[in-house]
Design goal:
The chain is mainly alpha-helical and 55 residues long. The protein has one helix and no strands.
């Protein structure tokens, strides 16, 4: 059966995989994020004690 012969399609599969894994990942990783997260003023507040009227 000719579909079991890996010779003709393995090179095409490997080259297309290499394009997606190497070339396109470098192009995507170079893109800038337009909405950079801004650092917010992080302040830890002390928790307020609960008022337990039945105690």
């Amino acid at each position: 059966m000719p579909q079991l012969n890996p010779g003709p399609w393995f090179a095409i599969f490997f080259l297309s995989w290499a394009v997606f894994m190497f070339i396109l990942t470098f192009k995507v990783s170079k893109l800038n994020n337009l909405n950079e997260p801004t650092s917010q003023n992080i302040k830890k507040n002390e928790p307020e004690s609960w008022n337990w009227p039945w105690i």
